[in-house]
Amino acid sequence: MHTLTQLRNGELKGAATLKLSEDLSQFPEEIFELADTLETLDLSGTGLSELPKDFGRLKKLKVFFCSDNNFTYLPGELGDCLTLDIVGFKSNKIETIFPKSINCNLRWLILTNNKIRELPSTIGGCTRMQKLMLAGNRLTDLPETLQNCRNLRLLRISANRLNGLPDWLLSMPKLSWLAFSGNPFVRSPKIEALDLISWTDLELKHILGQGASGIIYQVRRNSRVLAEQLAVKVFKGEVTSDGLPEDEMNTCITAGLHPGLVKLVGQISNHPENKKGLVMELIPSNFHNLGAPPTLESCTKDVFPEGLKLTSEKALKIASTIASVAAQLHNKKIMHGDLYAHNILIDNDCNTLFSDFGAATIYENPLLEKIEVSAFGYLLADLIGLCRVDDNNLTVEKLRKLQKKCQQELPNLRPRFESIAMELG
What we know:
Elements: H1 4-8, E1 17-19, E2 40-42, E3 63-65, E4 73-74, E5 86-88, E6 96-97, E7 108-110, E8 131-133, E9 154-156, E10 177-179, E11 196-198, E12 202-210, E13 214-221, E14 228-235, H2 245-254, E15 264-269, E16 277-281, E17 288-289, H3 312-331, E18 334-335, E19 344-346, E20 352-354, E21 361-362, H4 367-386, H5 393-406, H6 417-424
Parallel strand pairs: 1-2, 2-3, 3-5, 4-6, 5-7, 7-8, 8-9, 9-10, 11-15
Antiparallel strand pairs: 12-13, 13-14, 14-16, 15-16, 17-19, 18-21, 19-20
Helix pairs in contact: 3-4, 3-6, 4-5
């Protein structure tokens, strides 16, 4: 974090990264003094509503975050920065996107939680685009030119006003992570009743984790003779980059029981702020995330601890469990939407749990399963990369052949999860 005083005093001369968080009435002109070196600029939460006309002077700028501000339009000046790679204007008041605002060099664009009704056709010029995040807007359709973005891997369009998915979207060659819950065309699942557990019967111990959709606590349930150690996820109730928390809760319940899923115990009731939540079995402390979420550099690719290696048999065990879980989900017409190593928990023996339904969606079109199969192909590539060089070549080759099947450019040629699970045993 930096301050405006540091900037004005010249203390940040030569900086490649600048992050300001104090209130700004206008864009600080002193930022231009860093034009020869500045690559990452974060002005989120500063109250800005416009950019200067000569914003393009930041000729080396690659990453620009301007979320939680007061913009009512996506600035056209963004198109003047030829090196821009990532742009984030989450949670502004954007209603309009000018054609010039779409910088064709972009690889990652975040416009979550605005008031956007229409995307300009110029979005089709973003041939490098891998990640496009549009959840929580007012879109009624997607421009046909978006199909020209053939490198698009992740698309978030939940909580909009879409009446359907265009046919061309389902044939995009690299699309692998798609979330579209909370739109008019998505049916609401018939939810099985879970036991109601009163908030007053839960004793909060400590926070286990926190994400965009909610907070997970370790709790003790005191309503029985023997107190139980459990976990509870309390949903925040706000739209996230993936979609609506209510959809996450509904798909999590619909998923049902599976050894590779965390077992649900019930739903909370009588929360003092009327929040919703799920009570689940406590994941043993020896479980940990297989990978970490993508970085700004890796974009759609998970990252892994340096030196992490798996035997080919352990890699196969992880892949087999996830394929089995995915087969059950898709038999229930659930697309997880975020099939990634960072949402997979393993222990030292590679017993495996699949988590985080924040991007999950109930669907109708069977072709949607083939999109998630591509995501599984990326997971296989990660697992193959983690295998020891001197390990069982036959098992690795088996995984490699399956990966190629899963990532064929024509989605309808990819296998279903049911056959993948059978092949992996």
